[in-house]
Amino acid sequence: MAMGRRKAKPIPLFVATEDLPAVPSVPFLERLNAILEENGFDRFVEDLCQQFYAERLGRPSLPPGVYFRFLMLGLLMGLDSERRIALLVNDSLSLRAFVGYGVYEAIPDSSTLSRTRRLIKQDIHEQVLKWVLRRLREADWAERRQSVKDTTTLQRVGRKQMRGNAREFARRLAAAAGETAESAEETAQLDGTRKGDGSNDEQSNV
């Protein structure tokens, strides 16, 4: 067999839809997303987080349902850094599919995730995780022992990590970003209450 040699490849101007890479199947994430959608997860977190956003002013933010899916991936995989979460999702077709981004779409960067975390109070993070765990228990799935071969590790980690404290996880993300727990919590409170220059009504959202 002759040795293959790496060659530079030209970047095509156009790529047909059928030529895009297929998203690999990850049953664990597909089932998790199905349970979230069946129970109205996105509407739930949007209603819960509406208090932190302006009614009409400003460009649309990163949707709360998308942000919390990023957070769940961080919890599942033990990634205590928004930069690492964003990088991993950017490089994975299956993780892109879980958060709702196609291969042709730009993934939110770590600064967008950080701004969203600072906007939403930390106890809301814990409330969202408890809601998710409750729905998984109702689906008789959170403690399921059956594993699928290509996601065994992720399921094992998932069972352990999803029991963790989302508020504490948000604090670890803040620490990784060089923030103190107190400053992160204060920012969330101020963003929802302060008036005048710098308030939600004066600035555009994330």
Question: Notable features of this structure?
Answer:
10 helices; disordered C terminus; mainly alpha; 55% helix; 206 residues
For the secondary structure, the number of strands is 0
> Helical proportion?
40-55%
Cα-to-Cα separation, first versus last residue:
54 Å
Report the structural category: mainly alpha
List the uncertain runs. Answer: 145-155, 187-206
Folded structure, characterized:
The structure is a single chain. With 206 residues, the chain is mainly α. The chain is built from 10 helices and no strands. α4 packs across α5 and α7 (122-138) packs across α9 (166-176). The longest helix is centred in the middle third of the chain and has 17 residues, at 122-138. It is globular, with a radius of gyration of 19 Å.
Report a brief summary of the structure:
The protein is mainly alpha-helical and 206 residues long. It has helices at 27-38, 41-49, 64-77, 82-91, 93-99, 110-119, 122-138, 152-161, 166-176, 181-193. The chain contains ten helices and no strands.
